[in-house]
Design brief:
By secondary structure, the chain is an alpha+beta fold. It contains 2 helices and 7 strands. The protein has a 4-stranded antiparallel sheet with strand order 3-2-5-6, with no helix packed on it. α1 packs antiparallel against α2.
Length: 123
């Protein structure tokens, strides 16, 4: 099921389900497998609430999803899968967090705080 956490994976699973459902003379084992596949595919297509935490100083972006700007706490509804969020702040080291959104359950909050000040140089 984790392979279905991408657009391509969900499309392949849906195609497999269609083919399985079109099989004539389904026995009890195949019917059970089709039912489990339907359940897993439904979970893979259901958005999950994700909490992101920041310091109101970082500009936060979740790649391929949304530019969130500055905030202390916000929630997003994301499909199951792997995501990357980045926090940036002038004069501070960027923070990058990769996180997994599991199917059917809310993940731990994702924290993005730019706290490490970088040396700006000068005399």
């Amino acid at each position: 099921p984790a392979e279905w956490w991408s657009d391509r994976g969900r499309a392949e699973a849906a195609s497999l389900l269609y083919d399985a459902q079109a099989t004539p003379d389904q026995g009890p084992r195949l019917r059970d497998q089709i039912a489990r596949l339907e359940e897993q595919l439904a979970l893979a297509q259901r958005p999950v609430e994700v909490t992101l935490l920041s310091d109101q100083a970082c500009e936060v972006v979740v790649y391929r999803v949304k530019r969130l700007g500055r905030f202390e706490s916000t929630r997003l509804r994301l499909l199951p899968g792997r995501y990357t969020a980045v926090g940036t702040r002038d004069g501070y080291r960027d923070v990058r967090r990769e996180f997994l959104v599991p199917a059917g359950s809310e993940p731990d909050p994702v924290s993005l705080r730019c706290e490490e000040q970088v040396y700006a140089g000068g005399p």
